[in-house]
Structure formats: structure tokens, C-alpha cells
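Both lines are quoted verbatim for reference:

——
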Amino acid sequence: MGEEFKSGFVSMMGRTNVGKSSIMNSLVQEKVAAIANKPQTTRNAIRAIVNRDNLQIIFIDTPGIHKPKTKLGNIMVETAFGVVPDVDVVLFVIDATSKDIGKGDRIILDKIKESKKKTILIINKIDLVNREDVAKLIDVYKDEYNFEAVIPVSVEKNINLDAIIDEIAKHLKVGPAYYDVDEYTDQTLRQLVEEIIREKALRLLNDEVPHGIYVETEKMKERTTKTGEPIYDVEATIYCLRNSHKGIIIGKDGSMLKRIASYARTDLEKMLQMKINLKVWVKVKEDWLNNESLVKKFKLQ
């Protein structure tokens, strides 16, 4: 008789820039969340699906915990904590370069204690420190909570990532496959387009600009060229907070916007396995971070 099928939901929590999205993308082996070396990259609770033999894990990557200064910030933190009651396991991701439990980590730890959820502590970026530092950090955390396991990992060096899946599997119950085995995210194609364009902007733009932008997909239409080749026409708009930011995003003679669109097109063509005709515009929408109707789109669905 074969092994019984297990499934469940896993929340990834951590401070900004500890590498939650990178871990999730590596486990899924697809790009489902924007990755950039900047804080507050993830804005929504993004679901990614890992399928293995007799196993389906639905990861929920949440926004990094930070002190909110806008309505968007409040919604991001609310989203991060809002998923905890409904998951089977929590992955608490911390940075290996930490020397102690900082304020942000303490807030998350207190929420985990309150929830009493099964939690696996993930120490990321171990390639940046020595073993003694990792051992000291484990000692700091081990008396704080009864973690199911502590797993030191490095996404950069692909160290111990499979151990995360193996450990999660131990704590899931027999259950159904919630998604088709070919699916790796519950995001719509439009949302994936927005994530990819925003990621390229995050990677390429100056520090003061990226977190004041959001992207909306205006048009997505598949057609056939005169030679019978399938192609997607995609139109998207990058919204920013002020005219000075608009100038930076566009760049001299449109050079920056061309780079953002070119890099995004490469990823999209790889994802969709077809040619993409991508057009991207830039518009100003002042103080959108505090616009109630706009920031609602980032609420937990």
C-alpha cells in the first residue's frame, strides 16, 4: 500500500530583507515573488505551491515585519500576522548575521508564542558567518520557544533547502491536494506581470524611489502574428509618488524604463514560453501609499 498523501499551509514570517521570498522561490523553483536587496519587497500574502510525491505544501510568503508609517505599511503588517491562525506550520526566518533578538524578531516571536503554532526556525545567510556564530544564535533562540526544528540555510549557496521540505512534511496531516500538481502559485497572470516589473524596478532604481511605486497591468491579450507565431500584448503602468521620481524611472532618453521593460520581458517570455510585446508607461499618483481604495488591493485575500 502506498504512502498516504499529505498537504498543508505554511506561513513564512520574518523581518524585512531576511530572504523569505528567495527561500520560497528556491523551494518552488519558479519566480512567484519579487526579490530585491531592499526592505519591504513583498507587499501581499503570496501563495506558492510545492508538489512532491504524496505531498503538497502551500507556502504563504508575507510582507516583512517593520514599523509602519503609511496606510499601506499598516496593511502589510496586518497581512503578515493575519495568516498565522489559519496555517499548519510557521517558518520563522531570521538573519544569520544577527547577534541577538532584535525588536522586529521579538515582535514576531511574541506572536508565535501567542499562537502556539508549530514553528520551524530558519537561520538564513549562513554563508556570511562562521559556524560558531550560528551556534551562538541557536543558543539565543532555543530557550525562547519550543521550535520543532532549527535549520541553518543559505539560498545563495543552496545549503539545506531540501531539509526545510523534509521537516515540514513531518508536521503535516493526511489531506487533499488543494491545487493541481502543475500549479505553482495562486496569483493571476496579471499579478505575476506586476510582480516581475516591480522587481526589475526595485533592482535598478535608486533607493528613494522603489517603495513609492506600484504597477498595474492595463492589458493582456494573446494573438497570432502574420507568420502564425503566438504573442502576448502586455501593457502596464508604473505609478510613482512625484514627478522627480517619474524622471528617474524613465531615465535619460527613456534609458531606465527601457532597461526595466527589457529585463521584465525576458522573465515573462521565459515564464509564458512565448514572445511578449511589452509596453510600460510611468504616471504620478501622489500619496497613493495613504489612499484607502488603492491600498485595499494589498489586503490579505
In short: Confidence is low (pLDDT under 50) at residues 33-44, 64-75. The first strand starts at residue 6 and ends at 14. The chain has two domains: 6-174, 189-298.
